[in-house]
User: Which sequence fits this backbone?
């Protein structure tokens, strides 16, 4: 099963959050990403905070809402994750 071997190499939720951010140019919020990758909002926020510390994502505040955007590095990492997933 292709998905099983992918999860051996990557934690599924963080990898899929990066891929989901890369796939869409729409504004993304924590709650939307959490639904897309099937995890709780608090888990998604914890993952996103780790990604921000690693300079993979930026939070852009618009009013009361924080929009999540991939950095250039985050975009490259997401691209490679997608390629690896497709190879497996």
Assistant:
């Amino acid at each position: 099963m292709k998905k099983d071997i992918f999860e051996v190499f990557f934690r599924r939720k963080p990898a899929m959050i990066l891929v989901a951010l890369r796939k869409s140019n729409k504004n993304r919020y924590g709650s939307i990403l959490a639904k897309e990758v099937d995890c709780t909002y608090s888990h998604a926020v914890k993952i996103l905070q780790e990604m921000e510390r690693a300079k993979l994502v930026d939070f852009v505040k618009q009013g009361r809402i924080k929009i999540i955007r991939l950095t250039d590095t985050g975009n490259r990492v997401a691209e490679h994750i997608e390629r690896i997933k497709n190879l497996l």
Remarks:
- The CA atoms of residues 63 and 71 lie 21 Å apart.
- The beta strands are 57-62, 65-70.
